[in-house]
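Q: Structure tokens for this one, please.
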Amino acid sequence: MIVQIIICYLVMINVVAFITYGIDKLKAKKQKWRISEATLLLLATAGGSIGAWLGVKIWHPKTLHKKFRYGIPLIILAQIALSIYLFSDTIQAYIHP
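A: Here is the predicted structure, written as tokens:
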């Protein structure tokens, strides 16, 4: 049950991150008030790192900023490492039933 909740959360936060990065790019094109870098990075840190990375690759907002070019991939790696650590027992159960 908890795994399904986590998966639903991760799907939702990644969709929100992807859309938010697109909105930021649209606002940039229209020269309107943009979404703060802190908000964009917070979405990535809160579990939306894949959606944020896809948003950067597709929408190209802030691609010159090192925070986004290197920060988001580092967040993804940290989240993968944390997931492996937290779910190592579950992973082992699938590998060695």
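A few notes: The chain has a mean pLDDT of 91. Helices lie at 2-29, 37-59, 66-69, 71-86, 88-95.
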